[in-house]
Design a protein that fits this description.
single chain; 296 residues; alpha/beta; Glutaconate Coenzyme A-transferase; 9-stranded mixed β-sheet; 12 helices; 22% strand; globular
Length: 296
Protein backbone atom coordinates (compact mmCIF):
# COMPACT_ATOMS: atom_id res chain seq x y z
CA UNK A 1 0.00 0.00 0.00
CA UNK A 2 1.01 3.62 -0.56
CA UNK A 3 2.48 5.54 2.34
CA UNK A 4 0.34 8.69 2.60
CA UNK A 5 1.97 10.27 5.63
CA UNK A 6 2.71 13.93 4.91
CA UNK A 7 3.33 17.30 6.51
CA UNK A 8 0.78 20.09 6.72
CA UNK A 9 2.90 22.23 4.42
CA UNK A 10 3.29 19.56 1.74
CA UNK A 11 -0.30 18.31 1.84
CA UNK A 12 -1.84 21.78 1.47
CA UNK A 13 0.83 22.92 -0.97
CA UNK A 14 0.44 19.90 -3.24
CA UNK A 15 -3.30 19.23 -3.01
CA UNK A 16 -4.98 22.63 -2.67
CA UNK A 17 -4.79 25.19 -5.48
CA UNK A 18 -6.06 28.75 -5.66
CA UNK A 19 -9.66 28.79 -6.83
CA UNK A 20 -10.45 25.28 -5.53
CA UNK A 21 -13.73 24.38 -3.83
CA UNK A 22 -12.76 23.16 -0.36
CA UNK A 23 -15.12 21.24 1.93
CA UNK A 24 -14.63 21.52 5.71
CA UNK A 25 -15.91 18.60 7.79
CA UNK A 26 -17.14 20.17 11.03
CA UNK A 27 -20.10 21.54 12.95
CA UNK A 28 -19.65 25.12 14.26
CA UNK A 29 -17.64 24.66 17.48
CA UNK A 30 -17.05 20.93 16.89
CA UNK A 31 -14.38 18.91 15.10
CA UNK A 32 -13.07 21.52 12.67
CA UNK A 33 -9.78 20.71 10.88
CA UNK A 34 -8.24 23.89 12.28
CA UNK A 35 -4.59 22.96 11.69
CA UNK A 36 -5.37 22.64 7.98
CA UNK A 37 -7.32 25.90 8.04
CA UNK A 38 -4.30 27.66 9.54
CA UNK A 39 -2.07 26.17 6.85
CA UNK A 40 -4.35 27.50 4.10
CA UNK A 41 -3.89 30.97 5.57
CA UNK A 42 -0.15 30.56 6.14
CA UNK A 43 0.37 29.58 2.50
CA UNK A 44 -1.66 32.53 1.26
CA UNK A 45 -4.22 30.49 -0.67
CA UNK A 46 -6.72 32.66 -2.51
CA UNK A 47 -10.14 32.59 -4.18
CA UNK A 48 -11.23 29.38 -2.49
CA UNK A 49 -14.84 28.32 -2.42
CA UNK A 50 -15.83 26.87 0.94
CA UNK A 51 -18.41 24.15 1.62
CA UNK A 52 -19.68 23.88 5.20
CA UNK A 53 -22.73 22.41 6.82
CA UNK A 54 -22.50 24.71 9.84
CA UNK A 55 -19.32 26.78 9.74
CA UNK A 56 -17.73 28.47 12.73
CA UNK A 57 -14.41 30.10 13.60
CA UNK A 58 -12.70 28.43 10.64
CA UNK A 59 -14.94 30.35 8.25
CA UNK A 60 -14.35 33.59 10.13
CA UNK A 61 -10.57 33.16 9.95
CA UNK A 62 -10.60 32.32 6.25
CA UNK A 63 -12.76 35.35 5.52
CA UNK A 64 -10.56 37.62 7.64
CA UNK A 65 -7.45 36.41 5.80
CA UNK A 66 -8.98 36.93 2.36
CA UNK A 67 -8.64 33.22 1.60
CA UNK A 68 -12.23 32.59 0.46
CA UNK A 69 -14.45 34.40 -2.02
CA UNK A 70 -17.56 32.19 -1.95
CA UNK A 71 -19.38 29.87 0.43
CA UNK A 72 -21.92 27.08 0.03
CA UNK A 73 -23.59 26.12 3.28
CA UNK A 74 -26.53 26.08 5.64
CA UNK A 75 -25.25 28.32 8.45
CA UNK A 76 -22.21 30.11 9.86
CA UNK A 77 -22.09 30.69 13.60
CA UNK A 78 -19.92 30.31 16.67
CA UNK A 79 -23.02 29.27 18.62
CA UNK A 80 -22.97 30.74 22.14
CA UNK A 81 -19.88 32.79 21.27
CA UNK A 82 -21.77 34.88 18.73
CA UNK A 83 -21.72 35.67 15.05
CA UNK A 84 -18.72 35.26 12.77
CA UNK A 85 -18.08 38.98 12.39
CA UNK A 86 -15.26 38.90 9.83
CA UNK A 87 -17.26 36.57 7.59
CA UNK A 88 -20.32 38.77 7.98
CA UNK A 89 -18.34 41.87 7.02
CA UNK A 90 -16.85 40.11 3.98
CA UNK A 91 -20.33 39.13 2.77
CA UNK A 92 -21.65 42.66 3.31
CA UNK A 93 -18.74 44.10 1.29
CA UNK A 94 -19.35 41.62 -1.51
CA UNK A 95 -15.97 39.95 -1.01
CA UNK A 96 -17.67 36.62 -0.30
CA UNK A 97 -20.74 35.41 -2.17
CA UNK A 98 -23.07 32.89 -0.55
CA UNK A 99 -25.17 30.03 -1.83
CA UNK A 100 -27.47 29.35 1.11
CA UNK A 101 -28.94 25.87 1.34
CA UNK A 102 -30.85 23.89 3.92
CA UNK A 103 -28.96 21.03 5.55
CA UNK A 104 -31.05 18.53 3.61
CA UNK A 105 -30.30 20.26 0.30
CA UNK A 106 -26.55 20.45 0.97
CA UNK A 107 -26.45 16.81 1.99
CA UNK A 108 -28.41 15.94 -1.16
CA UNK A 109 -25.91 17.84 -3.34
CA UNK A 110 -22.95 16.16 -1.64
CA UNK A 111 -24.72 12.80 -1.64
CA UNK A 112 -25.22 13.03 -5.40
CA UNK A 113 -21.55 13.90 -5.82
CA UNK A 114 -20.49 10.95 -3.65
CA UNK A 115 -22.67 8.56 -5.67
CA UNK A 116 -21.72 9.92 -9.10
CA UNK A 117 -25.34 10.95 -9.73
CA UNK A 118 -26.41 14.16 -11.50
CA UNK A 119 -28.71 15.12 -8.63
CA UNK A 120 -30.64 13.87 -5.61
CA UNK A 121 -34.12 15.03 -4.57
CA UNK A 122 -35.31 16.55 -1.31
CA UNK A 123 -38.45 18.20 0.03
CA UNK A 124 -36.54 20.28 2.55
CA UNK A 125 -36.66 23.56 0.60
CA UNK A 126 -40.25 23.50 -0.64
CA UNK A 127 -42.05 26.63 0.51
CA UNK A 128 -38.90 28.78 0.61
CA UNK A 129 -37.46 31.22 -1.93
CA UNK A 130 -34.03 29.55 -1.81
CA UNK A 131 -34.99 27.44 -4.82
CA UNK A 132 -35.25 30.54 -6.99
CA UNK A 133 -31.96 31.92 -5.73
CA UNK A 134 -29.75 28.99 -6.75
CA UNK A 135 -29.04 27.64 -10.22
CA UNK A 136 -28.27 24.31 -8.54
CA UNK A 137 -31.84 23.71 -7.35
CA UNK A 138 -34.84 22.92 -9.55
CA UNK A 139 -38.42 22.07 -8.58
CA UNK A 140 -39.47 18.99 -10.57
CA UNK A 141 -42.48 16.71 -10.78
CA UNK A 142 -42.31 13.35 -9.06
CA UNK A 143 -42.13 10.84 -11.96
CA UNK A 144 -44.09 8.37 -9.82
CA UNK A 145 -47.07 10.67 -9.42
CA UNK A 146 -46.40 12.16 -6.00
CA UNK A 147 -45.90 15.77 -5.02
CA UNK A 148 -43.09 17.85 -6.57
CA UNK A 149 -39.55 17.56 -5.17
CA UNK A 150 -36.43 19.71 -5.38
CA UNK A 151 -33.64 18.32 -7.56
CA UNK A 152 -30.29 19.25 -6.00
CA UNK A 153 -27.38 19.27 -8.45
CA UNK A 154 -24.35 17.17 -7.53
CA UNK A 155 -21.61 18.99 -5.65
CA UNK A 156 -18.07 17.63 -6.07
CA UNK A 157 -15.55 19.64 -4.02
CA UNK A 158 -11.97 19.69 -5.25
CA UNK A 159 -10.65 18.95 -1.77
CA UNK A 160 -12.12 17.85 1.57
CA UNK A 161 -10.36 18.67 4.84
CA UNK A 162 -11.07 16.39 7.80
CA UNK A 163 -9.81 15.89 11.35
CA UNK A 164 -9.98 12.37 12.81
CA UNK A 165 -9.11 10.47 15.94
CA UNK A 166 -6.60 8.15 14.33
CA UNK A 167 -5.20 7.01 11.01
CA UNK A 168 -2.57 4.69 9.70
CA UNK A 169 0.08 5.58 7.14
CA UNK A 170 -2.03 4.04 4.37
CA UNK A 171 -4.83 6.55 4.96
CA UNK A 172 -7.38 4.40 6.78
CA UNK A 173 -9.30 6.81 9.01
CA UNK A 174 -11.04 6.02 12.28
CA UNK A 175 -13.35 7.91 14.60
CA UNK A 176 -14.47 7.21 18.10
CA UNK A 177 -18.29 6.99 18.18
CA UNK A 178 -19.82 10.49 18.21
CA UNK A 179 -23.12 12.05 17.24
CA UNK A 180 -21.37 13.27 14.08
CA UNK A 181 -20.38 9.76 13.05
CA UNK A 182 -23.20 9.16 10.49
CA UNK A 183 -22.28 12.36 8.60
CA UNK A 184 -18.49 12.08 8.65
CA UNK A 185 -18.11 10.41 5.27
CA UNK A 186 -20.31 12.51 3.00
CA UNK A 187 -17.94 15.41 2.25
CA UNK A 188 -14.75 13.41 1.68
CA UNK A 189 -16.60 10.78 -0.33
CA UNK A 190 -17.91 13.50 -2.63
CA UNK A 191 -14.55 15.26 -3.02
CA UNK A 192 -11.87 14.60 -5.62
CA UNK A 193 -9.03 14.81 -3.06
CA UNK A 194 -9.00 14.26 0.71
CA UNK A 195 -6.57 15.53 3.36
CA UNK A 196 -6.92 14.22 6.91
CA UNK A 197 -5.24 15.36 10.09
CA UNK A 198 -5.38 12.87 12.96
CA UNK A 199 -4.77 13.01 16.67
CA UNK A 200 -2.44 10.05 16.22
CA UNK A 201 -0.93 7.92 13.48
CA UNK A 202 -1.06 4.26 14.46
CA UNK A 203 0.01 0.92 13.03
CA UNK A 204 -2.48 -0.75 10.69
CA UNK A 205 -2.84 -3.57 13.21
CA UNK A 206 -4.46 -1.06 15.59
CA UNK A 207 -6.96 -0.10 12.90
CA UNK A 208 -7.83 -3.76 12.35
CA UNK A 209 -8.68 -4.22 16.03
CA UNK A 210 -11.83 -2.10 15.54
CA UNK A 211 -12.71 -2.17 11.84
CA UNK A 212 -16.22 -0.87 12.59
CA UNK A 213 -14.70 2.51 13.47
CA UNK A 214 -13.06 2.99 10.07
CA UNK A 215 -15.15 5.69 8.41
CA UNK A 216 -12.85 6.37 5.45
CA UNK A 217 -10.81 3.69 3.68
CA UNK A 218 -7.30 4.48 2.58
CA UNK A 219 -8.04 4.34 -1.13
CA UNK A 220 -10.04 7.60 -1.02
CA UNK A 221 -7.56 9.52 1.18
CA UNK A 222 -4.64 11.37 -0.40
CA UNK A 223 -2.67 12.53 2.64
CA UNK A 224 -2.64 12.03 6.41
CA UNK A 225 -0.84 14.18 8.96
CA UNK A 226 -0.39 13.56 12.68
CA UNK A 227 -1.55 16.70 14.48
CA UNK A 228 -2.40 16.32 18.18
CA UNK A 229 -5.12 18.79 19.19
CA UNK A 230 -5.58 19.52 15.49
CA UNK A 231 -9.19 20.62 16.00
CA UNK A 232 -8.35 23.23 18.66
CA UNK A 233 -10.02 25.58 19.55
CA UNK A 234 -13.09 23.53 18.55
CA UNK A 235 -13.99 20.40 20.48
CA UNK A 236 -13.10 16.88 19.51
CA UNK A 237 -15.13 14.44 21.54
CA UNK A 238 -14.14 12.41 23.49
CA UNK A 239 -10.56 13.76 23.45
CA UNK A 240 -11.20 17.36 24.47
CA UNK A 241 -13.79 20.09 24.68
CA UNK A 242 -13.84 23.43 22.91
CA UNK A 243 -11.64 26.22 24.23
CA UNK A 244 -14.04 28.73 25.75
CA UNK A 245 -11.36 31.34 26.52
CA UNK A 246 -9.96 31.19 22.99
CA UNK A 247 -13.39 31.58 21.39
CA UNK A 248 -14.16 34.54 23.63
CA UNK A 249 -10.80 36.14 22.83
CA UNK A 250 -11.48 35.89 19.10
CA UNK A 251 -15.04 37.17 19.50
CA UNK A 252 -13.64 40.20 21.32
CA UNK A 253 -11.37 41.26 18.44
CA UNK A 254 -13.34 39.96 15.45
CA UNK A 255 -15.34 43.16 14.88
CA UNK A 256 -12.15 45.13 14.19
CA UNK A 257 -10.12 44.24 11.09
CA UNK A 258 -6.76 45.35 12.51
CA UNK A 259 -7.30 43.61 15.82
CA UNK A 260 -8.39 40.46 14.00
CA UNK A 261 -5.25 40.60 11.84
CA UNK A 262 -3.07 40.92 14.93
CA UNK A 263 -4.76 37.90 16.47
CA UNK A 264 -4.22 35.82 13.33
CA UNK A 265 -0.60 36.96 13.08
CA UNK A 266 0.03 35.73 16.62
CA UNK A 267 -1.70 32.35 16.48
CA UNK A 268 -1.68 31.49 12.76
CA UNK A 269 1.09 33.17 10.79
CA UNK A 270 3.89 33.31 13.36
CA UNK A 271 3.91 29.75 14.80
CA UNK A 272 5.90 27.39 12.57
CA UNK A 273 4.72 24.14 14.17
CA UNK A 274 1.70 22.73 15.95
CA UNK A 275 3.63 22.82 19.20
CA UNK A 276 4.36 26.53 18.75
CA UNK A 277 0.69 27.15 17.94
CA UNK A 278 -0.44 25.36 21.09
CA UNK A 279 2.00 27.44 23.15
CA UNK A 280 0.66 30.62 21.58
CA UNK A 281 -2.87 29.46 22.37
CA UNK A 282 -2.15 28.93 26.07
CA UNK A 283 0.19 25.96 26.34
CA UNK A 284 -0.10 23.33 29.05
CA UNK A 285 -2.66 25.34 31.02
CA UNK A 286 -4.95 25.52 28.00
CA UNK A 287 -4.58 21.80 27.26
CA UNK A 288 -5.43 20.94 30.87
CA UNK A 289 -8.53 23.12 30.65
CA UNK A 290 -9.94 21.60 27.45
CA UNK A 291 -9.27 18.07 28.75
CA UNK A 292 -10.74 18.72 32.21
CA UNK A 293 -14.36 18.30 31.14
CA UNK A 294 -13.78 14.54 30.73
CA UNK A 295 -13.35 14.07 34.46
CA UNK A 296 -15.96 16.52 35.78
Amino acid sequence: MTDKLATLEDAVGDLVSDGDVVALQNMATQAAPMALVRELIRQGKRDLGLVVLVGGMAVDWLAAAGTINRLIGAAVSMEQFGLCQQYRAAVERGDVTVEELSETALNARLGAGARNLPFLPTKGLIGTDLIDQSENLVLIDDPFGGRPVVACRALVPDVALVHAHRADREGNIQYEPTILWPDIGIMPKAAQRVIVTAEEIVDTSRIRENPDRTVLPGFIVDAVIEVPYGAHPTSFYPRYGYDTSFHMAWAKVARDAEAAKGFLDRVVREPDTQAEYLNAAGGAQMIAAIERWRTT
